[in-house]
Amino acid sequence: MALGAFLYPTGHHAAAWRHPDAQADAGINFKHYAAVAQAAEAAKFDLLFLADSAGARGKDWSALARFSTHYVAQFEPTTLLGALAAVTERIGLVATASTTYIEPYHLARKFASIDHISGGRAGWNLVTSGNEDEAFNFGYDQHPPHDERYERATEFMDVAKGLWDSWEDDAFLRDKETGVFFDLDKVYTLNHRGRHFGVRGPLNIPRPPQGYPVLVQAGSSDAGRALAAASAEVVFTAQQTLESAQEFYRDVKARTAANGRSPDDIRILPGIFPVVGRTEAEAREKFEELQNLIHPSVGLSILEHRLGIPLSHLPFDGPLPQDIPITNAAVSRQKLLVELAHREGLSIRQLALRVAGARGHWQVIGTAADIVDRMEELFLNEGADGFNIMPPFLPGGLDAFIELVIPELCRRGLFRTEYEGTTLRDHLGLKRPERAHRHHKAV
Amino acid sequence: MALGAFLYPTGHHAAAWRHPDAQADAGINFKHYAAVAQAAEAAKFDLLFLADSAGARGKDWSALARFSTHYVAQFEPTTLLGALAAVTERIGLVATASTTYIEPYHLARKFASIDHISGGRAGWNLVTSGNEDEAFNFGYDQHPPHDERYERATEFMDVAKGLWDSWEDDAFLRDKETGVFFDLDKVYTLNHRGRHFGVRGPLNIPRPPQGYPVLVQAGSSDAGRALAAASAEVVFTAQQTLESAQEFYRDVKARTAANGRSPDDIRILPGIFPVVGRTEAEAREKFEELQNLIHPSVGLSILEHRLGIPLSHLPFDGPLPQDIPITNAAVSRQKLLVELAHREGLSIRQLALRVAGARGHWQVIGTAADIVDRMEELFLNEGADGFNIMPPFLPGGLDAFIELVIPELCRRGLFRTEYEGTTLRDHLGLKRPERAHRHHKAV
């Protein structure tokens, strides 16, 4: 079972920063991140996972002012990942970076650089920017449509792979005696000319230690699944039930096979928001402590943001309307929340509070045995290859998971007690990709 | 006197990587960079300085194959700077980043992030991309003209400052009791709409600890000087003689004053390529050892690249033509080399060998006393506020400078023996900029 530690600065719960033990300035506190990363590494997590947004998210600033984790005050992930690479030795380092407003040469180079700095531990969670708050920072009046963004993302990933393949693995001879630094026969240009990009290459850094950084995908829409099946090696997804997890798992594995890849070439990690106690009552109490810290306007604002529609004109204790329009936002997340509300008969208030907790991810509250039971059920029944752990608050929520849940996972033989390899690919059991031979000789 | 340690992977000499004591894989060896950075910090350097290029430089691949340091195999600087921030505590961290092929929101955010990670030690050397080898990686058939690039760079820096000013310094309250994370009255949007960029803001990270990262400029053309005088706080420049250094120094200080700034608001650091020995003979011997390692084609290729014109059709032992055309490359560097050749009557071969050593920078070979005499002369006579030290090879060239030259500088009272402050601005004696009030209230 693969485990990611998904690090939101103060934790994933909307009110996490108000928890007495939370580090309220976590987003710009490097010592905090270093300590959390080292704790996750000591517990043998496969990877750290960082989200991203190139802009403050949300239109309701009075709600944002009461909600720390919406990208108003945190490190930029690739620079943070560089720093975390220097204070860890084995754990994988995955950062999210959008393809929508940057050129592929820049991102391919950065992730290759992190892979070299870390000795083969980098992963890139490729996303598209589903948020006009980002678009406005890059000269757009609105963000490009969903399909257009995915088309660009597909070309972007293709270019990135081509750039990582600029050099054969053994191109750099560095022969002091003969004075030959690299082998002229082992460098290639890409000469890419596509709809979105023109990129000659070569990339000015050797092939990453892992061949490519581990490619992660986090969109669960149809376009997201198609991109994942074509290229991704890890899929991060939000699933609320065994059935929906199985549907997603089987669909993505089947699509992956249809792309001529082995189903083992892709690892599916649903998010899980675990609230663990020594007893179920203690876990419930911990959760209620956090829920009671949510400011009324915050949950509604987050829900409006997630659904991409205004809700404040509707009765807070009434139901979610049946006919939510599909917007140009994060399509799969929207669908998941509407289904959750209708399945459990939640009022807008109840849905808002739920979203403010786990943000639409799978929320499990209980003892270590309860939580491992649920994880095991998905893991053994084609629902998950592992999980991206979303601690409610940091560092306490991760510490509790490490102290209580990890030992139970190990006891049942579901999780490692020691790293066997040195790279993120080693941890995940993913093969190192060969160079693709579609290049032009540079000379 | 301010001192920078300008870290080219294996050192600045074209054949540095072939030196018996050089770390040939330095460009992708993080342990190497960490050790060099820590040595520079122990010696109380003001800053580390990293160059950059978003593409392999040079058209002559057979020469590149014999020349390691032309950006074919090295870390991307902002990710490297993040990593170096984690293994150092006091030294300033300056990386070069071009404004030509990226959006300002991305770069402003990265440098703010590095400033936060490092506790106020970041600096940004703003350049334009004077090289078509970069243009080809970003969808261009040729790079934009010199003036156009500087116009974009000027708007870029203005936007970056505006983004760093998105939040007042005390905007983040993080009051767990009241649940107010930030003060709504202290966040601003930029709403910039210019010729090159449209950027709403706010930046999604608090104001950098230093207000702005230290702003460095490295172009010495007329446009470069104008940009420096308007905005830069450190100027890195190539100067060969006391007279040219004085001309540059006085001109930039006067232009800075003409912009309503104090001449003390800008620090001028010429590059110096020091080859130090315990005797002059030992220094000469060290230099010849490096010169003898230069492959014949390498020096010519570097010279062609620097001048932006082909030279291989001319007699290698003949003079440089009088009428070198001004190209769309790095204008000031071109001028400097032509003047050097004509002043000293150098043949193309001699100029090529000189450029392969110090790349057009000021080359000083001698004992510690000789080198400090020359540095002191510039420092005391309006030629320099300090120097960017360009070690011939690493780590040995920097180690020798630290062992021999630094003590002589300290003995003469020219250089510190301990850091007095914690930020790069502290080290350089630069004031922390106030927020500029040109923003729109976000709410």
Automatic annotation (TrEMBL), chains A, B:
<feature type="binding site">
    <location>
        <position position="221"/>
    </location>
    <ligand>
        <name>FMN</name>
    </ligand>
</feature>
<dbReference type="GO" id="GO:0004497">
    <property type="term" value="F:monooxygenase activity"/>
</dbReference>
<feature type="binding site">
    <location>
        <position position="150"/>
    </location>
    <ligand>
        <name>FMN</name>
    </ligand>
</feature>
<feature type="binding site">
    <location>
        <position position="220"/>
    </location>
    <ligand>
        <name>FMN</name>
    </ligand>
</feature>
<dbReference type="InterPro" id="IPR036661">
    <property type="entry name" value="Luciferase-like_sf"/>
</dbReference>
<dbReference type="InterPro" id="IPR016215">
    <property type="entry name" value="NTA_MOA"/>
</dbReference>
<dbReference type="InterPro" id="IPR011251">
    <property type="entry name" value="Luciferase-like_dom"/>
</dbReference>
<dbReference type="InterPro" id="IPR051260">
    <property type="entry name" value="Diverse_substr_monoxygenases"/>
</dbReference>
<comment type="similarity">
    <text>Belongs to the NtaA/SnaA/DszA monooxygenase family.</text>
</comment>
<feature type="binding site">
    <location>
        <position position="146"/>
    </location>
    <ligand>
        <name>FMN</name>
    </ligand>
</feature>
<keyword id="KW-0560">Oxidoreductase</keyword>
<feature type="binding site">
    <location>
        <position position="52"/>
    </location>
    <ligand>
        <name>FMN</name>
    </ligand>
</feature>
<keyword id="KW-0503">Monooxygenase</keyword>
<keyword id="KW-0288">FMN</keyword>
<feature type="domain" description="Luciferase-like">
    <location>
        <begin position="16"/>
        <end position="322"/>
    </location>
</feature>
<dbReference type="GO" id="GO:0016705">
    <property type="term" value="F:oxidoreductase activity, acting on paired donors, with incorporation or reduction of molecular oxygen"/>
</dbReference>
<dbReference type="Pfam" id="PF00296">
    <property type="entry name" value="Bac_luciferase"/>
</dbReference>
<keyword id="KW-0285">Flavoprotein</keyword>
<protein>
    <submittedName>
        <fullName>Monooxygenase</fullName>
    </submittedName>
</protein>
<feature type="binding site">
    <location>
        <position position="96"/>
    </location>
    <ligand>
        <name>FMN</name>
    </ligand>
</feature>
